[in-house]
Q: What sequence folds into this?
């Protein structure tokens, strides 16, 4: 009879959380976050399988994986739990672990992209920029604090919740709670948009040039219209805008 | 944040922050959704303020419009160029991932940590080198352009500064306000009204 696998400690989970910051260190088009996922999970695998078995266990996790970097914490906790249950004797085949990763990756990416990238980041940036335009030196700090408060919370809580509930974390109202949070952030987003537009108008109103109002409205229309097909990058559009202004300034004297 | 730090290095935190703020609004249009390789706004946030604050003294007027525009334009250029570099770096990582596979097959678990450290070192060294080289080249190029025709640059900036701020606001609002074409048109109409009220009330 083989001895039971050692229990995973809280310090192992903390190390998983800390290592998850390097999830994308060797991001590549072939396996995306695959190697980073194995790297982050290593403390749990080392505890469960020892020095002799950890390389084999790690090799099972370097395959394709991709999700939102912060929300990967939930997958790390849940997969760590699955590996622990296996090591304690539960009948879980390799394919079940692969299938769980393949399901969690896109599902968490959809949640994370819409909550963090499409909502929280623009809200934090709009409020930070509004403060800068109002003359405050605290704008960048406000942006960092607003964004990272939720970002770090998700990173820490994700590993813990994933570990405690295993794959069940998905069914215990997580989506309902996050969609409530998204609604709250959406309200903040509308307020952020109004504050940003007001700050922008006040900032440009200080310019003595008579062309400034027209240029501001033209630029805003271009920004709002951008993205219908998204074939042209916004940065390239900005460079094009400056080139037009330079051409006008050179040719029309 | 990069703008504030670069501004602190060049002795004007607030001006650096203004360049960084406008670049931040453009960055919102290129977020890494669904595995998309983002534009390199980290380098842009350092190069933009550096160019703006080094070219400032070569301009004939004290207005910050022209340095701001030159800084933002340099930042946008660096962000686009940096994206090519990030893609190249990520393609190189395929080889590193394959090497890790081989080493894990031979039982060397520590190879994974080594590969991760190498990945971080590569990204940092290449990113820092690219940022430094871009800052030096673009600062020299913009100074040369200003010396060549300072008047044209100032006039172009008078037109481009509000247009770039407007475009940044438009890009941000697109992300902030969920809705279709009608919502955006409504927002634009409200902006036109607000601009008119502000200008008439001056």
A:
């Amino acid at each position: 009879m083989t001895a039971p696998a050692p229990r995973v400690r809280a310090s192992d989970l903390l190390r998983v959380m800390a290592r998850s910051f390097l999830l994308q260190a060797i991001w590549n088009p072939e396996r995306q976050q695959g190697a980073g996922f194995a790297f982050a999970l290593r403390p749990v695998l080392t505890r469960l399988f020892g020095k002799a078995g950890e390389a084999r266990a790690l090799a099972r996790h370097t395959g394709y994986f991709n999700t939102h970097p912060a929300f990967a914490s939930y997958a790390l906790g849940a997969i760590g739990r699955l590996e622990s249950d296996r090591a304690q004797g539960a009948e879980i085949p390799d394919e079940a672990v692969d299938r769980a990763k393949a399901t969690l990756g896109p599902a968490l990416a959809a949640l994370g992209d819409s909550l963090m990238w499409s909502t929280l980041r623009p809200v934090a940036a709009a409020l930070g920029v509004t403060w800068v335009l109002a003359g405050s030196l605290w704008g960048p700090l406000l942006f960092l604090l607003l964004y990272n408060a939720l970002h770090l919370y998700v990173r820490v809580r994700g590993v813990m919740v994933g570990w405690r509930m295993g794959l069940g974390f998905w069914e215990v109202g997580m989506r309902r709670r996050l969609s409530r949070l998204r609604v709250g952030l959406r309200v903040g987003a509308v307020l952020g948009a109004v504050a940003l537009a007001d700050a922008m108008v006040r900032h440009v109103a200080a310019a003595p040039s008579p062309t400034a109002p027209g240029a501001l409205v033209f630029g805003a229309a271009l920004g709002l219209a951008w993205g219908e097909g998204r074939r042209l990058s916004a940065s390239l559009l900005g460079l094009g805008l400056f080139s037009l202004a330079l051409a006008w300034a050179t040719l029309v004297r | 944040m990069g703008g504030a730090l670069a501004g602190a290095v060049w002795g004007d935190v607030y001006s650096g922050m203004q360049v960084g703020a406008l670049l931040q609004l453009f960055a919102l249009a290129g977020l890494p959704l669904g595995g998309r390789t983002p534009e390199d706004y980290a380098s842009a946030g350092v190069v933009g303020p550096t160019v703006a604050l080094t070219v400032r003294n070569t301009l004939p007027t004290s207005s910050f419009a022209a340095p701001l525009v030159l800084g933002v334009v340099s930042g946008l250029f660096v962000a686009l160029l940096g994206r090519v570099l990030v893609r190249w770096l990520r393609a190189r990582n395929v080889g590193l991932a394959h090497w890790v596979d081989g080493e894990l097959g031979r039982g060397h678990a520590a190879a994974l940590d080594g590969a991760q450290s190498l990945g971080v070192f590569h990204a940092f060294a290449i990113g820092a080198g690219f940022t430094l080289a871009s800052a030096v080249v673009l600062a020299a190029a913009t100074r040369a352009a200003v010396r060549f025709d300072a008047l044209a640059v100032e006039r172009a900036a008078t037109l481009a500064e509000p247009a770039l701020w407007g475009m940044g606001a438009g890009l941000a609002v697109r992300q902030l306000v969920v809705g279709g074409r009608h919502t955006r048109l409504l927002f634009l109409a409200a902006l036109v009204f607000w601009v008119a009220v502000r200008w008439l009330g001056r």
About this structure: Chain B touches chain A through 94 residues (CB under 8 Å). Residues 6 and 186 of chain B are 38 Å apart (CA to CA). Helices of chain B lie at 2-9, 13-27, 41-55, 65-105, 110-148, 150-176, 181-200.
